[in-house]
Amino acid sequence: MQGRILSRFLALALLAVAMAAAGAKAQDLKRFEQRITTKVLPNGLTLIVCERPEAPVFSYSTFVDAGDVNDPSGESGLAHMFEHLAFKGTSEIGTTDYAAEKVALAKVEAANDAYETEYLKAVGRDPQKLAELKKAFVVAQAEAHKYVIPNQFTDVAERNGAEGLNAQTGMDETMFFWSMPENRLELWAWLESSRLADTVPREFYKERDVVIEERRMRTDSNPEGRLFEQFLATAYVAHNYGRSAIGWPSEVSQINATEAMDFHKKYYVGSNIVVAVVGDVKASVALPMLERYFSRIPAGPKPEEMTTVEPKQFAEKTVAIREATQPIYLEGYHRPDYRDPDDAVYDAISDVLSNGRVSRMYRSLVRDQQIAAEAGGVSPYPGDKYPSLFVFYAVPLPGHTSAEMRDPIHKEIDKLKAADVTDDELAMYKTRTRADLLRGLADNQGLANNLAEYQTRYGDWRELFLQLDRVDKVTKADIRRVANKVFVDSNRTEAWIETEPAAAQQSAPAPKDGGAK
Amino acid sequence: MKSQLVMSFSKITLVFAVFAATLSPSFLSAQQSKPWEQIPIPKLHDFKPQQPKRIELKNGIVLFLQEDHELPFVSGSVLIPGGSREEDPAKTGLVGLYGDAWRTSGTAKMDGDALDDLLEAKAAHIETGGDVDSTAVSWDSLKGDSDQVFSLALDLLLHPKFNPEKLELAQQQAATGIVRRNDDEGEIAGREAKKLVYGANSPYTRQPELATIGAVTVDDLKAWHDRTIGGKLIVSVSGDFDPAAMEAKLRAAFEGLPPVTPAPARHDVFTGPKPGLSFIDKEDVNQSNVEIVGLGTDRHNPDVPAVAVMNEILGGGFASRLFQKVRTELGLAYSVGGGMSFGYDHPATFRVVVLTKSASTVDATKAALAEIDGLNAKPFTQIELDRAKDNILNSFLFRYDTKDKVLAERVKLEFYGYPPDYLETYKAALERVTLADLDRVAKKYIHPGKLAVLVVGNGPEIKPPLEELKLGPPQPIDITIPMPKQPLAEQKQ
After folding, report:
1. Global pTM?
2. Which of A58, A155, A369 has the highest number of chain B CBs within 10 A, making it the mutation to test binding with B?
């Protein structure tokens, strides 16, 4: 029921509540250890194989420890743009003649550089020259296109039964994944290792247009997309979590292939990648083969960590959007990253506030006060690797405003600060966390994603289970302490939409016959 | 621990994963080596999906038991025929409200709030819901709690006690959905396109309004519930249980119910859309949602396998004609795809969708229409046929690669009266599809002149204007949300 309206943005954070403090009993870990083999290759890449022969299929997850937070300054959206490029094939797949194509692609890049240089001239830009350069750029692209076999990489994967083929770029990471019949394991290893090691900036500029359409769909033309982008841009003053992940329009529209390939060179090195395979796979047979293919990925130093740390907030901030769409209220408080000793305490708070019809915010704002259709508090958002936000939200019922949500939310926060949660609430958090982890173990894809992510974030996939210790140690006093530390006025950014009818819509024309009603 | 605000490479919101492409043979032969073709593909491990045990009780109720001992959980559901397509149009939304308030109200023994407390403390769930042709109660819990949770679910099935306060809560939630239904462009486009196909007042598209949900009373919920017992219930359980004990328990619970009476046949009429162009202006967007729609078909139609292969060639995946042309070649869309969908007991829709920036609305629409037209004009090739079949058949086992999927499929086939080996015969039929079949079904089902085109977008930004599509003047659709004279809250007082 919850997350119905804000689903696209916060549903994953709600899910995170369950998985974050994931833990299970000792025998679960032991049982799993027998089925899991881990190997670090000489190039630094980590392979994880989990045997689950329930059906003759496997799923994989490639987890690259680089996301849009790593986009260089002026190049927001680059990690995501590169993710798209990784479906365009290699020097062996997707081309009729790579040697000739390589030359043609270099010309595309030179033509783009010449065009951009003229375009960006602050003084003395020559419109005629700009038009000529644009034309030359289009001609160079057409020349390179002659060698392209479009979508051959995905075509080979899908013809061989790839299911759920996709990738996603988050603030912190880039993930590639699909499932396949088990007899295609070696074919998959060839495809996946090829595209990671041997990416070619094929059809880059057309794909950039596709990504800009993605921005229009997710952000520009979507009220929630607009609200969340402004919310983060306001909550953060220094750290890249405040920057548009899909990219600011002026930046994503000027990313070039050279920048994308530089990003690849720096971040797509063995030490920055974990690949997990789960399903009908025998580690003893598969590992030597997997090692052979994934050794193709270049070794390289783990990229340096970012120096920027979001400074302590001392000014309350507000994002006010007044438009014709319906109201939504958000407020966020800065919280530490996932390595903080209190990480599980934040999950406990989320659980007590938001998980199901027993949760405090459902019972107070939805059931009893009847002012909201949905309400909750979730974290971490928009990532977990760096200090993030704890976000409270409410979706007002018709006839209620965003402004009316503020005090009832603060009342719930004050209750957390002033009095302990009940024993039942705390026990419920621990029980549900354990059960939700167990439920997730029966899903090849979900398990592959989790193993790869925990291996990357903690250096050991076992943390998926061992976190239970931290979950079990959360006390009522911890919850009060953390609430008092984090949920303070000076640490708050609120963002909301209040409805202001557009002038044009007030005099909408009467329906004509023939139109659907 | 999981990150948010993710973006994905593909946005396949439409239809099925699909495949085929327009690669010319000369391209393929020009490629010097194909190292992936040298990689051996061994024989697939033997696999016989475990079928659930089916038991038909004397009263006509059907039980399915699917054992699965991998994890210590038990889940189940009771599927009940009858849904929103049968509700009184003046009370549209009734079944949705019923699905919500049934569970939140609870039973005479235990109200919904107390149920919440009890179940959540055990990480267990019981939920109810209403759909277009059915309602359902479902449950899941750890093995140790499964007897208690099943008893509670059964009590809810047989002895609900509908509570006016919970109906009101459900009405508020529904009202929130209604007043927000024009905020999201894609939601508007999908909804209005479906109305173009079936008609705005069809049982499949009529939409809840503040007035119609406000008209629903607790007595309506009770009356709906009274008619559900006596229908052909399908009870399914899966998980970590002893089959003999479970069968005995289910028999004890359901054998005493009255004999089922078959649901009366429906006589819906489906004429398809009135051809032409419709337009909905939305000032706060910079992208158009284009829907090209017509009537689809149902799975009883023997042409379905050939149409499925044609769908694969038209659009839905990366190598489809639509994706190759509109996204890859023209760069005009992130989201593009579609095809003809199949209902189980009524025709679904034909639907192609393109999302493109305002200025390229006409170009992208023309490109998509040309690909639809091309199903008749541009001959299918053997390469396309082979690719489409590979795509469908090599991933076919993902329809039954878990015990839960096998169970869900069997329940669905039982519900709609299809034979239990439907998937096997369907797969065999897919394998037999020929180029001649493709030509035949394209001629039979693809009639661009009968399709309706709907654009939702920012009118002043759409240049060149929609008139250039030459589909006649764009007909405006009014999507103003009817507001009752009194707000919902006051009606209740």
Report:
1. 0.92
2. A155
